[in-house]
Amino acid sequence: MTRIEHLAFRQDVVSTRARADPHLTNWPVVYVIDGFSRSRKAPDLYVGETVNAHKRLLQHLKGPKRAARLDTIHVVIDERFNKSVCLDLEAHLIRWFSGDARFQVLNSNAGLASDAQYYDRERYRTSFRNVFEQLRAEGLFTQSISSIENSDMFKLSPFKALNPDQNVAVDNILKALLRDLRHDKSGSTLVVQGGPGTGKTIVAIFLMKLLADIAAHIPGDDFEQDSLFADYFLDGDRQPLAGLRTALVIPQQSLRRSVQRVFAKTPRLDPKTVLSPFQLAESASEYDLVFVDEAHRLGQRANQASGSQNKKFSNINEKLFGRDDRTFTQLDWIRARSSHQILLVDELQSVRPHDIGPETLQRTLRAAKDGDRHFHLMTQMRVKADADYIGFVRAALRGEDPPRPDLGDYDLRFFDDLGEMRAAIRDAEQRFGLSRLVAGFAWDWVTKRRKNKKLVADFDIEIDGVRLLWNTTDKDWISSASAADEVGSIHTVQGYDLNYAGVIIGPDLRLDPATGAIVADRERYRDKKGKETTGSFAGGFTDEQLLVFVRNVYGVLLTRGMLGTYVYVCDPALRERLRTVFSD
Q1: What is the reported pTM?
Q2: Which residues are within 8 A (CB) of 286 and not within 5 positions of it... i.e. 6 or more apart?
Q3: Percent of the chain with pLDDT over 90
Q4: Which residues form the GIY-YIG domain (predicted)?
Q5: CATH number of the domain that 451 lies in?
Q6: Whole-angstrom Cα distance, residue 526 to residue 509?
Q7: Last residue of a domain, which of 330, 346, 377?
Q8: What is the sign, positive or negative, of the torsion defined by CA atoms of 285, 286, 287, 292?
Q9: Distance (Å, whole) CA 562 – CA 199
Q10: Residue 264 lies in a domain
Q11: Angle between helices 389-397 and 572-582 (to 10 degrees)
């Protein structure tokens, strides 16, 4: 029942052909306008919905779209369509095109429909896949839906549909930011706090795209009048955003690389503005606004990954503050280089002593709350289970005996045999993709060391006769070709989604037979950077403080899987303790 009409993106064609078709003058439709590449740059594409395609397309031909590199119109027509269906299909196509990355999607993200319910939604959404396949047959898509939806380009897209919680947060952040840009010349710090899966990274990327679109908006250009963010496109709000110098700081290298690729394919977003804390501090630019994703992973003074970075830390302090005071942190750098900051934080995801100190985080959170610049994301969207799953996992790691919540179809399984869990993850990889083994840092990365250009060993982890390798790359490991046969550490998966996570709880977490408490085993904890006494831990840290970091590591790993989490525990006593919690 669905058909696609094709027209040239020319005024004479639209004026004659579209006017003659009643479905193009008085019927809800979705349309795609695409172009072909005239350079090394990806071709442009625009997706829209309307009840009068004839009128709407003429408006495009008279407006800013006329200057875009667009050639062909594809109008999706179906007798069953209504306004709600078209808004939903438009949003799906925008997200799929963005994730496929063949085209540069010209749409603003301000008008994207939220994930709203409407009559018979699931049946309509099934039909969307047929629309996708018709457009794919015409060459508009290069990948399948499953491949697109498993990609970083899709998961980190600025065209994600925000949930109601995120919509309210973005609206309130915009109001506070505009107020600060107009009136607070001394600068401000806004804090967005949320647990795993609440979409902190998505909110940051969405906001950067929205701010860029508002600043670049030309009066008369199209935007969704009914959008929650429509009023921000008016003159009074566009003016403070015009020329705004923004950057996005991401401490983790792997996640930073993934976001840079997304920005490179998104109009008005520049991959050069996605920086490490070092790059921002060393930049010659001063910034009006800096977003900091995973701000709890910003560093304090510590032994860096290389001698050159140790020198850089000292030089940056000298440059910015006139002295190398060991109390200065990377958060101080960001505040020195920018007037306004938006920090995205979950203090329960700090995993090393040289992450910014808990006192600094708490002080920052209190100041934001006192200044009405604190925004809380409450709804977790990653794990397809009851909202209590995150709390359940954290309570179990604290040694409590929480009741297993109603997980619905979520696949939480406990394994006694690592080989069986590995086979189950491989099966999930075949069926769903994006299924990985992950583990706490309880084994040395011996394959990283080389002697006479030969590996010292050909495996890092051995459990019950199963030999495994740590991740062979720390740059976008999750999407790498070898990832399905390796084990990812906390430093390769934090900030990412998986479909299935097979979590190995290593011997760095065990049950104390004398007390029955869950404790950290300092000897079996092998993250060398995690053992260094530095910053606010320069005087050393207790076993209880180490336990906090180790619990946070496993709290992150156990909340990566969207469809399921498989668990294997190395310590026999802890295995028996957690079996009663995690098993049905």
Answers
A1: 0.90
A2: 245, 337, 338
A3: 66
A4: 26-105
A5: 3.40.50
A6: 12
A7: 377
A8: positive
A9: 13
A10: yes
A11: 150
Q: Is 544 left (phi over 0), alpha (psi -120 to 50) or beta?
A: alpha
Amino acid at 1: M
Are residues 359 and 259 part of one domain? Answer: yes
Same domain, 498 and 556: yes
Q: What single-letter amino acid sits at 547?
A: L
Q: What CATH number has the domain bearing residue 88?
A: 3.40.1440.10
Q: Is residue 336 part of a domain?
A: yes
The residue that leads in pLDDT, 472 or 310, is: 472
- SS3 assignment, position 182: helix
Give the phi and the psi of residue 572 in degrees, each rounded to 5.
-60, -45
Task: Give the burial class of 206: count Cβ atoms within 10 A of its Cβ; 0-12 exposed, 13-18 middle, 19 or more buried.
Answer: buried
CA distance 503 to 554: 8
Distance from C-alpha of 152 to C-alpha of 150, rounded to nearest angstrom: 7
Q: Report how far residue 471's alpha carbon sits from residue 445's, in angstroms, rounded to the nearest whole number.
A: 9
What is the DSSP secondary-structure string of 562-582?
A: EEEEEEEESSHHHHHHHHHHH
Residues 315 and 424 in one domain: no
Measured CA to CA, the distance from residue 582 to residue 575 in angstroms comes to: 10
Task: Say which range, 159-168, 234-243, 298-307, has the weakest mean pLDDT.
Answer: 298-307
Same domain, yes or no: 426 and 552: yes
For 19, the enclosing helix (H) or strand (E) is helix 19-20
Q: What is the per-residue pLDDT across 458-514, written as a single tens digit (0 to 9) for each?
A: 889 999 899 999 998 888 899 888 999 999 999 889 889 999 999 999 999 999 999
Tell which of 351, 377, 403 closes a domain. Answer: 377
Rounded Cα gap, residues 481 and 490, in angstroms = 19
Q: In terms of residues, how long is the chain?
A: 584
Q: Are residues 301 and 205 in the same domain?
A: yes
Token pair belonging to 254: 């792997």
DSSP 455: E
Tokens of 91: 């949003």
Domain identity same for 139 and 203: no
Is residue 152 included in any domain, yes or no?
no
210 within some domain: yes
Structural domain of 408:
389-582
Contacts of 146 (CB under 8 A, 6+ apart): 432, 433
Residue 340 and residue 196 in one domain:
yes
The verdict on 9 and 140 lying in the same domain is: yes
How many domains does the chain fold into? Answer: 3
